[in-house]
Design brief:
alpha+beta; 10 helices
Length: 269
C-alpha cells in the first residue's frame, strides 16, 4: 500500500507481532523483550557484568568491551588504516551524541532504521511527517539510514548490545521492581503529533515516532514547548537513559531514548 497506515512490517527480531508492541495495550501491560541472539553472542560480557556490585563498574566494563570488540578509539570515531588515512568508524556513542544534536540527521535515520529492523516499527517522522512509501520523505529516510558511512562498523550490532545492556541494568540495578517509568516530552503544538484518539482535552492516544526522546524532569520538558505530554513508558521500551553509562553526551537534559508506538498520554500546560 502506498500510504503508511500500519505500525510496521511483519518481521522483527523480538518475537512478538509489531502491532502488539506498538499498541497501548502492550504499553500498559508489557512483556519482556529481547533482541534475538544478542545476549547469547556476548555471553562473556553479561557473565562479567553479573559479578559487579556497582552500576559504575558495569558501565566501565560495557564501554571497555565495546571499544575492544568494535575497534574504536577513546574518542569513538577515528582510526588510521594501513595507508595512513583517517577512516571514520561509527560508534553507538557517536550516534547518541549526534541524536542529541539533531534527531533528523543521517545518524538519526540510522537509529530509526535500527528500530525498524529489530522491532519492526516504521518511523512516522524524519525531517517531516512521513505518510507514504512513495513520498520523497520516505526515500530520503531510506537513503540516509542505508548510508555506508554509518554501517562500516556493525552499528546495528552495537545498538543491539546497548539495548540489551540497558535492559540488564534495569533488571539488576535501577528499577528491578518497576514495570513503568513516568516520563515527559515538551511539544510546541499537538498538531505536530499523530493523535490516534482523543478522549478529552487532557487524555489522548498519541502515535510517537519509532524512537523518541523523553525526560524524567517536567521542568526540562517545559523548555521545549507549551504542551507537556506525560507518559508511562514500559521499562522494556527504554533503549538508553541518563546515567546508564559513565561517559556520553546527553547528561544535560536527563534524556531517555524510548521505542515508540501508540501511547496513552496526559496533556499538561
Amino acid at each position: 500500500m502506498p500510504h503508511i497506515c500500519q505500525h510496521g512490517h511483519s518481521t522483527n527480531l523480538i518475537g512478538l507481532a509489531t502491532a502488539c508492541i506498538a499498541s497501548p495495550v502492550f504499553n500498559e501491560h508489557p512483556k519482556p523483550l529481547h533482541i534475538s541472539g544478542t545476549r547469547e553472542s556476548a555471553s562473556g560480557l553479561f557473565e562479567q557484568l553479573a559479578e559487579q556490585t556497582s552500576l559504575a563498574d558495569c558501565g566501565r566494563i560495557f564501554q571497555d568491551y565495546m571499544c575492544v570488540v568494535f575497534g574504536f578509539e577513546t574518542e569513538q570515531r577515528l582510526r588510521n588504516d594501513h595507508l595512513g588515512r583517517r577512516r571514520y568508524r561509527n560508534s553507538y556513542l557517536r550516534l547518541i551524541q549526534d541524536w542529541g544534536l539533531d534527531s533528523n540527521n543521517a545518524q538519526g535515520a540510522v537509529f530509526k532504521g535500527w528500530v525498524e529492523s529489530r522491532f519492526g516499527l516504521y518511523p512516522t517522522y524524519h525531517k517531516q511527517h512521513i505518510a507514504s512509501f512513495v513520498s520523497r520523505d520516505w526515500i530520503t529516510y531510506i537513503e540516509e539510514k542505508m548510508n555506508s558511512r554509518y554501517h562500516n562498523n556493525c552499528i546495528y550490532m552495537q545498538l543491539d548490545l546497548l539495548y540489551e545492556y540497558c535492559q540488564w541494568v534495569i533488571e539488576h540495578f535501577r528499577f528491578p521492581e518497576s514495570t513503568h517509568k513516568t516520563l515527559y516530552r515538551g511539544v510546541t503544538t499537538l498538531d505536530d503529533h499523530w493523535i490516534v484518539q482523543g478522549e478529552d482535552k487532557q487524555h489522548k492516544t498519541v502515535r510517537f515516532n519509532s524512537i523518541v526522546s523523553f525526560t524524567d524532569r517536567r521542568s526540562i520538558a517545559s523548555e521545549f514547548g507549551a504542551y507537556i505530554l506525560e507518559v508511562k513508558v514500559p521499562m522494556v521500551k527504554l533503549v538508553f537513559f541518563n546515567d546508564l553509562l559513565p561517559h556520553h553526551a546527553l547528561h544535560g537534559e536527563a534524556e531517555y531514548l524510548v521505542i515508540g508506538g501508540d501511547y496513552r498520554v496526559k496533556v499538561q500546560r
